[in-house]
Design brief:
Two copies of one chain form a homodimer. By secondary structure, chain A is α/β, with parallel strands linked by helices. Chain A has helices spanning 18-30, 46-50, 62-67, 90-102, 114-124, 126-130, 156-177, 196-201, 224-238, 274-286, 297-301, 308-326, 377-383; strands at residues 4-10, 36-42, 54-56, 105-112, 135-140, 184-189, 213-216, 241-246, 290-294, 332-340, 345-352, 395-396, 399-400. The longest helix of chain A is centred in the middle third of the chain and has 22 residues, at 156-177.
């Protein structure tokens, strides 16, 4: 088998553990130097590929690559950029082939979510449609946890651990203050289309540490009266109430609450953020003092609180991606397959990319309690194993010590520029 | 010496480590049973004392009390309630004495910030002014870090560690996304009157891990043009910019930005939150895509990321409080005295309460860089030791395992109620 180089690119929103996957791809490729040459990385994802701005990961020491295991976000830069179909924008694909050929790229690893799976599928068709031999493997990554076939998505377990921990901690705080001060605490979390992260907030409440919790899922349209009644009942019974709300919560008309503009509690437009909106509603309608938090990037960048299970799975998909590629498997994605809940067991399988691309896996209705404000035992059984285990980064002077790679550019070989 | 009981109460906003101090008070008192009888706790702070709603901590096992070491927020409940002076509201003090006498309270430990120090001072005057023999010791606690005399305040180091870590992690995220997406990230932090927490955000940026950072302190009035120029310069040079803003930021007229109502970037009223306001301003004036986070209670409840230094100091002040009381020292506060920066060394001293109560220690101008948007080397030398060391809580099923005490009520001995 001829030795050819590999190209790895990160895509879409980054996570606390996407670099774990990068580490796995590079370390596994280094074990197979006789068949896989250098691993190049696109600087800022596919944009770096199109503009021939590649990073030579072989210039990084084994130690630097290993440090990716505990470094959040995208070490090579990511981007939000979706390729059109080959028929609609052939020039882009011709450019990709030009860059691939110039650097003898035989393997393409695309590390992302839904949109990226679609891009990767298109790249996988270059051999057949445009005659350039390439093996393209999609490597799953998304905090939204909405890729099909795979039981969960690398990145999600760590966000889940972060939001559940944060809500539990905040709940202890509110419980202390409720007598004279804050009675309702609202935490806004990510997940615009699917309520997986919102469901994970539900783990804050368990048998040993009950928390009066109300969850607002993007899958369940907001019912103001029912919501207020539930919050008020919790405050009456427990003295306080915690609310976890998805950024993607929809109003009765199916419009995003956060964008519903003039409909907030005071009749004013919103700067964005459904969390403050819900909090203000509680205040104006029930009169309870509130606090709210919007975790935003903090939740998906929190490597200091990563789930060990997530770290192991993020590594496993990167390693499997290289092994699949070396076995000649084109247009696949390593998927995490759960083989048992108790004890939790999983293995890696191969999902055909055409079954992955552009499908969104929403939170099943059976994971949401009948009243629409909580999670079921089934959801709990699914979620709990994913947040298990701690994997602390090293600390220096009291702060996590994260690495920055040198990111040495590969000398350009093409005379032409390409406008992205 | 006669054996008398002790009363401990938590006051004001809680922290990730106030229970560490509670643990120290109770454990140290238990070592001196022959002189200090039971330790009672006010349920929800001083309100529980006034209403004779006391908790008997002797009903908790040594193991439960030890678990307070890793449990955030106020285990006995806190409150926001300030006593008027003895001259203005004598009835309240008569009630305190009535409750103290009924339960043979000889020692009063009040665990709080500025307002609490004032309350504790008033209680300490009961012997002299009203003839009830009591020793009152204030135990410092405030994330705001604004108590005088003590070098730092228990609770602050952990918030500092949290905000610096969070900003560093978010900075890695933004740096990955900046090519095609978010260029400016805004994190709103606590500290309404003093910029200590805002300054701590500055630790996210250091020599090994530079971060283009702009800090907005409550001590420096907001200068929109200068701020925008600074942000834009960072974006031009580094591709992105991170902004740490105090909830207490004031506009040019000295009004709270978050309450300046109709002055936001879109001319609309605000739901609260200067973070989203600043972010929207960046978008409207510079056109950069933004994200913002408001950490709110998450920052002060984050026991999972507590500073070991803070934990040790929180214990030390609780232990010293009991020792001071047993030594007959009334109207004092154990203060943390820094004896050396490098290596960082500290010891406990006694601060007279009348020098503590109602003084607010603001961030010195010398800790803020000349342009008003950063911290100086002096600030760094002060802050760095306070975030050092990790002290992880135990985890169960992937989440921190925090304790809830039984909080058994002390049988009431008074026939009268007291309206708080």
């Amino acid at each position: 088998m001829t030795r050819r180089n590999a190209l790895y690119a990160q895509s879409g929103g980054v996570t606390a553990v996407i670099n774990v996957t990068a580490c796995a791809v590079i370390e596994t490729a280094r074990l197979h130097r006789q068949r896989m040459g250098k691993v190049y990385a696109g600087r800022n994802g596919i944009i770096g590929v199109l503009s021939e701005d590649l990073i030579d990961t072989s210039r990084e020491s084994a130690r630097s690559i290993a440090a990716l295991m505990h470094t959040p976000a995208g070490a090579f830069g990511s981007c939000r950029y979706k390729l059109a179909s080959i028929d609609r924008d052939r020039a882009q694909y011709e450019r990709l082939i030009e860059v691939f050929r110039a650097h003898d790229i035989g393997y393409f690893f695309y590390n992302g979510g839904n949109d990226s799976a679609d891009t990767c599928l298109k790249v996988s068709q270059l051999s057949e449609r445009m005659g350039y031999p390439i093996i393209a493997v999609h490597v799953p990554k998304t905090v939204d946890n909405d890729l099909p076939i795979t039981d969960c998505c690398p990145g999600f377990g760590s966000v889940a651990k972060y939001v559940a921990t944060s809500m539990r901690e905040a709940a202890f705080d509110v419980a202390s203050m409720a007598k004279t001060s804050t009675r309702v605490f609202v935490l806004e979390v990510m997940g615009r289309h699917a309520g997986w992260i919102t469901a994970a907030v539900g783990l804050a409440d368990d048998e040993e540490t009950p928390v009066p919790l109300v969850l607002l899922f993007p899958e369940i349209r907001f019912d103001e009266a029912k919501f207020l009644a539930k919050v008020d009942a919790h405050v009456r019974e427990f003295g306080y109430c915690c609310v976890g709300v998805s950024e993607g919560l929809l109003n009765a008309e199916g419009k995003l609450m956060a964008e519903a503009g003039t409909t907030d509690a005071f009749g004013h437009a919103q700067l964005g953020g459904v969390g403050p909106l819900i909090a203000a509603l509680v205040k104006s309608k029930l009169g309870h003092k509130y606090h709210w938090a919007v975790a935003d990037y903090l939740q998906r960048a929190a490597r200091h609180l990563a789930s060990k299970t997530d770290v192991l799975q993020s590594y496993a998909v990167g390693k499997a991606a290289v092994e699949f590629a070396l076995a000649g498997r084109n247009a696949v994605m390593p998927a995490i397959l759960r083989t048992s809940d108790k004890p939790y067991r999983w293995k890696i399988g191969a999902a055909p990319l055409e079954e992955v691309a552009n499908f969104e896996k929403k939170l099943p209705r059976g994971y949401i309690s009948a009243d629409g404000f909580g999670i079921t035992a089934k959801a709990r059984a699914y979620l709990e194993p994913l947040v298990r285990g701690e994997d602390y980064p090293p600390y220096r002077n009291g702060l996590p010590h994260y690495t920055r790679l040198r990111n040495v550019a590969v000398p350009r070989r093409l005379a032409t520029d390409f406008k992205v």
